[in-house]
Hints:
Largest sheet: 7 strands, mixed
Oligomer: single chain
Number of strands: 9
CATH topology of the largest domain: Rossmann fold
Shape: elongated
CATH class of the largest domain: Alpha Beta
Number of helices: 12
Amino acid sequence: MTPTPVDPPAPPYRPEAVRARLEELGVRPSKGSGQSFLTDPFLPDIEVALLELAPGTPIVEVGGGLGALTAALLRRGLRPLRVIERDPRLARHLREFVAGRAEVVEADALTFLFVPEEAVIGNLPFATATPLLMRLFALRPRRVVALVQREVGERLAAEPGGTAFGRPTILAALYGTVELFARVPSTSFEPEPAVEGIVLRFTPREGPLPVGSPAILEDLTRRLFAWRRKQLGNSLPAVVGGDAQAERLARESGWPSDWKRLRPEALGPPLFFALAHALEDRAAGATSPRAGAAKRLRDPPSSGAEPSASYIS
């Protein structure tokens, strides 16, 4: 059954109108979380079009704000729709705004209970988007469409060999595919951030994951990318327990013959998946195989080591 479009009220888009409405609500955008409000009236329709969902697919919008994206969802008649908003003042505004057309939930998206049957969409605060995206990717919902800081989006969708490629790229690829779409200038927000945004779409991987234990892959990549400027011939033995062990694991994982001269960003995600799988196999005789594999991983020595990579590094 084709969704019935709903003509919602128009949210404020002009910067002065956004500032005025926020002042009425007593809301001051949080600099710490990189909170800004969209002033581009066309971008929400682009984001909603990227969902490409079957009619009746449940949708959760993260961070409803003043309703710019909510209005686009309602215009297309996409229901059922739940809108999450952490700020109680903005949540009250949204309940008035949607007038019963959608459910507004006052909650923190980082602790909200998402389910795989839902699609998720949101204009995310730039400084706090990555932990939420990683949590969503691991859940593998129907689709994720998000406006994020451009640097974050480029790291999630990076190709091997570049400086943007890293641990977030590998973990995102474990769970699905990230595509990048519209770049959004800083002038499209109020207040104007110091960085640009970008719209991304995540499509989940179908079927089983290529590794049995995501925790082993997460730990392995954390340790290797803490030494991302060092060649793997130095870092892998330090992580897995010696040169002989590193040689065996690299061979079993199908790594290229010159792997010792390469840095971690030179290898694509499938080669890291294969290494994590080989570590699981090595632990097959342990009482707890996955725990055994994790215990055999070692942090690089503190002397001369680089800081551990964060989700957005």
